[in-house]
Hints:
Elements: H1 15-26, H2 30-47, E1 51-55, H3 62-73, E2 77-79, H4 80-89, H5 93-100, H6 102-114, E3 122-124, H7 133-140, E4 143-149, H8 152-161, H9 176-190, E5 193-196, H10 203-218, E6 225-227, H11 245-251, E7 260-262, H12 271-275, H13 282-293, H14 301-312, E8 324-328, E9 331-335, H15 345-349, H16 352-359, E10 365-371, H17 376-385, H18 389-394, E11 395-402, H19 408-416, E12 422-427, H20 431-442, H21 445-455, E13 457-461, H22 467-486, E14 496-501, H23 506-516, E15 521-528, H24 533-540, E16 542-544, H25 566-573, H26 578-591, E17 593-595, H27 598-607, E18 608-612, H28 615-629, H29 635-647, E19 654-658, H30 666-673, H31 682-690, H32 700-706, E20 715-717, H33 721-736
Parallel strand pairs: 1-3, 1-4, 2-3, 4-5, 9-19, 10-11, 10-13, 11-12, 12-20, 14-15, 14-19, 15-18
Antiparallel strand pairs: 6-7, 8-9, 16-17
Amino acid sequence: MFHVVQYRPFRLITRNSLSSMCLKLMLLRPVAFAQIWKSWFSSHSLVGNKNIILMGPPGAGKTTVGRIVGHKLDCPVIDIDDDVLETTWNMSVSEKLQDVGNEQFLEEEGKALLKFSASGSVISLTGSNPMHSAGMQHMKKNGIVVYLDVPTTVIMSRLKSMKVDRIVGQSPGVSLKDILQFRKQFYRRWYDVRVLCGGDIAAEVVAEKVLDAVKRYQDSELETFISTRSGRSGRSMEEDSRKYFSDVVTEGLAPDGGLFVPQRGLPKFTAGEWQSLIEATYIERAQVILERCIHPADIPASKLAEIIGTAYGENFTCSKIAPVRHLAGNQFLLELFHGPTASFKDFALQMVPHIFAYCIPRSCNYLVLVATSGDTGSAVLDGFSRLNDTDKQRIAVMNFFPEDGVSPIQKSQMIGCQKENAWSVGVKSDFDFCQTAIKQIFTNSDYTGFLTVEYGTALAAANSINWARLLPQIVYHASAYLELVHQDIIPFGSPVDVCIPTGNFGNILAALYAKMMGIPIRKCICASNENNVLTDFIRTGVYDLRGRKLIPTFSPAVDILKSSNLERYLHLIANEDGQLVTQLYNQLENQGHFQLQKDLLEKLQQDLVAGWCSEEDCLAAIHSVYSTTGYILDTHTAVAKVVADRLQDRTCPIIISSTAHYSKFAPAILRALRIAEIKQNPLSQLHLLSSYSPLPPVHWGLLETLKKKGNEDHRVCAADMSMLMSHMETLIQNHFM
């Protein structure tokens, strides 16, 4: 067995030496003593008996960074190359490689790891150690593996300057770039935390980032959530009332009726960290961003990678997942409709079911409730239908939608996505009633308690009131900006505007969050249809529902008057003043309106501008864009295009969120393009669109869903709370009992 060889002398601190040190420190001023003691205790408690294990490609700086980290923590530093392999083999690594060849070298290297043990040390692995499974499993038993993630182009530049042109595992005919890319799968398999390292970052800075990452990994207590209607974020919370990511995913809505938000806000990325993601794939960007938003105590990095790979691997028809396409002039489209149900909702709802299934306790069944204005329902049903059989047995889904408030194709799609554990219920009312009803059910403790006691079933939410729904949306807004940089449209740091068709405020809130995290978004343009309550609010600060009635439009997904996620944004700009948010929403509930203070309106207008689009202008935009470019906008994207044309100042690029595939709204598209008489049957409408060869193809997922037999069967109920509850209990009895 190879035991720890100290890289430098390790000063053992005994009880007597500790007492002596404390006595000397106490002679200092009290403040100085407190600061030094806190620094010493923090450093030593950080390591304990665990090792900090630095992993990454050759040229990542593991050895140099390891020495700096060890010096800061005053603990042993071990370089596997110098202190283990060469000592064990009694020859240099290069001589061993030449002696035994690539494959045998990896085996010999792994055997050396298996004989090695250490504790409380900083260990720098070789670039090829992670390729030996048994050796890495042995190392992880007593260590926190930190992945120094350096862009491949930077590594190649560093290796060139070091005159290294071949590395372990590189066979004849395989390029250095290819072997570096190949190795990434092994690094991703083993790490606990990742540190992004750009090209010009100093080793001292990387070392500090390593320490910060390890501290975060070891202290999940820092990443708690509060309600938008609770006290200010600085207020201490009782131990039993703390909410973590797993809790808010499961619970959905806060007990006081507010929405959960992270107590310490969202993580900030440096410009260098964002730039290191320019060459990355969409899945790689999602992994990096979500790792920083979800504590590994809730979802470990390896499990998160599995979830992201499942969500975006084969379910999206475009390899770029969320491609950015030039439309005209300074306008670009962020295409968010390449998922299985043809809308932007797929980005969250191909992922959230797997997150939910991982986070919920195994001892309880769950009924997931969702209200939809059109696209969410089918995305939720499809996403939860892709869970494994074990998870589907303990999770059921009920989708409420306005029976006469969605497009015919959207309704057929929701009905066609039904499964044994997933029902769609048409409600004889509008979306606002459906959404309000779900909130009332969640805050009715007597009823939720009854479901738990009588049926062993808890409730959860899949609407964007659930925090987990927002995180994947942050990813695609950040990725869109990085795509423009990657395409050499702009240099990193140049601003862009974004224009988003907005109803429930979730999508545009995600763009605002991306801006807070360091993406250079200048203005977020809120685009409304004729239900323009948000436009009026952003312009005047007055949110007024008095006398307003919901107007059915060609863009039903934004036919919303009560925008739930606006509450999260108001909580943010009000400096987490939950009392003020409670006051505003109580006034909205009781009096039908509220007004922002002048200072808050000024803050809001620094981020947001707004406009709205008539039905006529929506159809005209679809016709005009198709006539000039051959591209077909869906009705929601057309709303955003009209508003963008009016409000952009053309001093920077503008990214328009294309939130759905045009074929979901076939009647409006046929009318806009003046093609033919509109048939009532949704499948006939899609076939009619498909028959016009000049048009882009109809979305594959829609055709497959609408072809299913029996997709006209669904449940319909009156706008009555007791009726909704009755349908819920019927599903629970059928599925769980």
